[in-house]
Amino acid sequence: MDRGEMVEPERLSQRILPAYAIQDLLYARLRLMRAFDRGARTRLPRLAAKAQAAFDCWMENQEENTQPQDVNRCRAKFEKAMVRIERALFGGEPIQTAMTVETPSATGAESSRWLCQSPPTEILFKTNQATLTPKARHTLEAFIQKAKGNALPILVSAHADRAGPEAYNLTLSKRRLHTVIKALEKGGIPQDRLLEARAYGELCPKVMTPDGVHKAKNRRVELRFACRPSAPCGS
């Protein structure tokens, strides 16, 4: 506690983390917050404290990213505490929230080697919405026509601004992701063109803002063509 108030686990956006670790940490934080919302801090205070301390340890060591054994040690402590907490609170029921939508051949490490430096196409959304506006639909249709003119794989990332709870924003970004994927398919771009499709929630804002702030530029889905670093990439 801090001055009589509960201290939440640190947000991922407060640290500079390697891309391959973000999904696991985001999922871990959601598990922790789910347990806290169900009363873990009052019903299982010692286990809750151990889980949060282990999560913070995992985050700190993952940001430093120099001692894999320390990352694994903290993560193992987190998992051990969370298994006991979830068994007591939920009967071991796993949290139901898919973190990524990926093609079978794509991994975070692989896709990072494919990323081109060309500016992404941005599909913007209204607050709390996952439907395409007329302007967004026009932008997406232009991207689809461009995609039909090449055979490059496509990277898709979905985002939300920080106006709302972190878990809600992750769910909202997932809805935006699926909206765009569905529109791509309808436009003739099959899912096997997608090297990677990820929902990041509020984790990766285009414009950094304080928590709770609405920002149109952060309510977006980004589309990029992917190519190996040695290959030219169209703008």
Give the topology:
Blueprint: H1 19-37, H2 40-43, H3 45-64, H4 68-90, E1 100-101, H5 108-114, E2 121-124, H6 134-148, E3 154-158, H7 166-186, E4 194-199, E5 220-225
Parallel strand pairs: 3-4
Antiparallel strand pairs: 1-4, 2-5, 3-5
Helix pairs in contact: 1-3, 3-4
Describe what this molecule looks like in 3D.
- The chain is an alpha+beta fold.
- The protein has helices at 19-37, 40-43, 45-64, 68-90, 108-114, 134-148, 166-186, and strands at residues 100-101, 121-124, 154-158, 194-199, 220-225.
- 31% of the residues are buried.
- Helix content is 46%, strand content 10%.
- The chain folds into two domains: 12-90; 100-225, 2-Layer Sandwich (60s Ribosomal Protein L30, Chain: A), CATH 3.30.1330.60.
- The chain starts with 18 loop residues before the first helix and ends in a 10-residue tail after the last strand.
- It has seven helices and five strands, in the order H-H-H-H-E-H-E-H-E-H-E-E.
- Residues 94-115 and 228-235 have low confidence and may be disordered.
- The longest helix has 23 residues, at 68-90.
- Helix 1 (19-37) packs antiparallel against helix 3 (45-64) and helix 3 runs antiparallel to helix 4.
- A five-stranded mixed β-sheet has the order 1-4-3-5-2.
- Helix 7 (166-186) links the parallel strand 3 and strand 4 (194-199).
Structure characteristics:
60s Ribosomal Protein L30, Chain: A; 5-stranded mixed sheet; alpha+beta; disordered C terminus; 46% helix; single chain
